[in-house]
Design goal:
Layout: H1 2-16, H2 25-29, E1 32-34, E2 44-46, E3 56-59, E4 62-65, E5 75-82, E6 85-93, E7 98-105, E8 120-124, E9 162-169, E10 172-177, E11 180-186, H3 190-198, E12 213-218, E13 224-233
Antiparallel strand pairs: 1-13, 2-5, 3-4, 4-13, 5-12, 6-9, 6-13, 7-8, 7-12, 9-10, 10-11
């Protein structure tokens, strides 16, 4: 009898587990969409490709990077481009793992790798990474650009699931980790351009300039798993610009010679 009760208890626990890679009715009503169905890699392809040939596969309801990628290869991107959005995903890294989520990535033959065009939310197992890391290479950074507030970061240990979120709302950018906002900045400001032109991206003229692009997952030579990848698109906000100030012709110039 005790054994029967124990089995019933296990079945109860199993029935109460949160289902993965599904949207709640509330999320559907709010405009969220899944980018991974938990079974296939439909909707994803090689960077600069038309099909998926890179070493990614589906294991136990997760998109998984096999760890065969490198700086030059191993990138997969969404079929669809996104402009303004909230993007949420769960991730789990192997020991010493290194990966990332990129957005506004531009696909063109002249760009061999996506990170010279699109910003990256860095994912990395800092405690076990085999090499010293600069601050701009660590978990949660806007890679080589903006640093998170370390005091707000609560990271689950390597091998356990974490959740991250990127908000891109008409140039206002936020990084979240496990439900806490750890970083925010404004894109395309004077400060943003100063960071871009004085650091790693000084010789990458297209970096971060695209207003719209595909999302990208990175296999950087370490197995990494992703699930519950979902996105809610946000509206483009229009900005009214005054072309005449009422007093002078500042902002205007003569055209032609007559």
């Amino acid at each position: 009898m005790i054994g029967l009760y124990f089995i019933s208890f296990l079945l109860f626990l199993n029935s109460c587990e949160t289902k993965q890679n599904v949207l709640t009715p509330e999320e559907i009503a709010d405009g969220w969409q899944l980018l991974f169905d938990g079974r296939t890699l439909n909707g994803w392809k090689d960077y600069n490709g038309t099909t998926l040939t890179q070493p990614w596969h589906v294991v136990d309801g997760c998109i998984q990077a096999k760890g065969d990628g490198s700086d030059a290869s191993g990138y997969i991107v969404t079929d669809k481009q996104y402009e303004n959005f909230e993007l949420s995903w769960d991730w789990k890294l192997s020991k010493g793992g290194n990966s990332g989520m990129l957005y506004h990535v531009v696909e063109r033959p002249q760009f061999a790798v996506p990170y010279v065009t699109g910003p990256e939310y860095q994912l990395i197992d800092e405690p076990n990474f085999p090499e010293p890391l600069e601050e701009w290479q660590k978990l949660g950074v806007d890679y080589a650009m903006h640093l998170p507030d370390k005091a707000k970061m609560k990271v689950n240990p390597q091998g356990e699931w974490n959740n991250s979120k990127i908000v891109f709302d008409n140039g206002h950018v936020e990084h979240w980790l496990n439900g806490v906002k750890i970083l925010e900045f404004e894109a395309w400001t004077d400060d943003w351009y100063a960071k871009k032109n004085s650091g790693k991206w000084a010789n990458a003229p297209e970096y971060g300039l695209a207003k719209k692009g595909v999302l990208c997952l990175q296999d950087h030579g370490y197995p990494a798993s992703f699930r519950n990848i979902k996105i809610k698109e946000l509206p483009r906000k229009t900005k009214e610009v005054t072309l005449f100030n009422g007093t002078d012709l500042k902002g205007w110039e003569a055209y032609g010679t007559e």
